[in-house]
Amino acid sequence: MTAIDGDLPELDPVIHAQARLRVVAALSQLDGGDRIAFPRLQEILRMTAGNLSVHLRKLEEAGYVEVTKTHRGRTPATLVHLTNRGRFAFEEYVNALRTLIQPGEETS
After folding, report:
1. CB 80 within 8 A of CB 56
2. Cβ atoms of residues 83 and 63 within 8 Å
3. How far apart are CA 104 and CA 106, in angstroms?
4. Tens digits of pLDDT across the chain (108 residues)
5. Tally of domains within the chain
6. Distance between CA atoms of 88 and 74, rounded to whole angstroms?
7. Is 106 part of any domain?
8. What CATH number does the domain containing 78 carry?
9. How many Å apart are CA 8 and CA 2, to the nearest integer?
10. Is 12 part of a structural domain of the chain?
């Protein structure tokens, strides 16, 4: 049965919001254990600190990202990374999109 026959995949609602999709897509470019500083992620995504914080909180509640508050010397730092669960969820999301866009083609 192909997706066009009615077996359409569900898109993860946590990732599907445009801002969260941008966050997860950006974080997916990091190697598995790498983290990015909050201000750098904010700069890349061109989001306000408040807006980014709200979306990171939602992703963190789903277990898709981990936010770590630490210090670099005496300066507080907030680091963000995509968890294994988040990486898998994003891969599933991308595969679901491919199925919707290209029904009948196999996804990896």
Report:
1. yes
2. yes
3. 7
4. 344 456 778 899 999 999 999 999 999 999 988 999 999 999 999 999 999 999 999 999 999 999 999 998 899 999 999 999 999 999 999 999 999 888 766 555
5. 1
6. 35
7. no
8. 1.10.10.10
9. 8
10. yes
